[in-house]
Amino acid sequence: MSLIITSIVVVVLVVMFVTIYNNVIKTKNLVEENVSAIDTMFQNRYDLIPNLVEVVKQYASHEKELLEWVTKLRSSAMSWQEMTKDKLQNENMLSGTLKSIFALSENYPDLKANQNFINLQNEWTEMEDKMQAARRAYNAAVKALMDLKEMFPSNVVAGMMNLKKYDMFEASAESKESLDAKELFAK
Q: DSSP assignment of 17-37, as one string?
């Protein structure tokens, strides 16, 4: 009788282990899938930037420094292979700088009315919206993986797997600051 009970306990433990192991693997793969989706969106944005810079160059020749900074940020961002805190910060800087380019259109009425610029601006806005959704999905997947790594009994199985640590997307320090509307209208 005790052999049957021992066998049942062993089978239950093995089933639990396999179930937890598969759940950890599934969640890790979900994180990797989200990293890949975000990288694809980054690449789409990198591909859009040269077109945007070229259109703006035609109208804003004296804004050369800003355009060179955007190009430099794009090159730097493209060089990162893994999703790290530095890459995430670089992407936040790139987003902020691109907003500056669109703000330039206020100083150039012809640029603001240019169909290519309008199309690029719409593409960028749509891409940023998709990027926000991808960031939320990525953060949710990372959180689920962190939960599995920290909660019992999955932490035991996850601990044996030597899983990589993933950083969460966080807002840039600039976006956390209060916005002063007076400064926006003073420009």
A: HHHHHHHHHHHHHHHHHHHHH
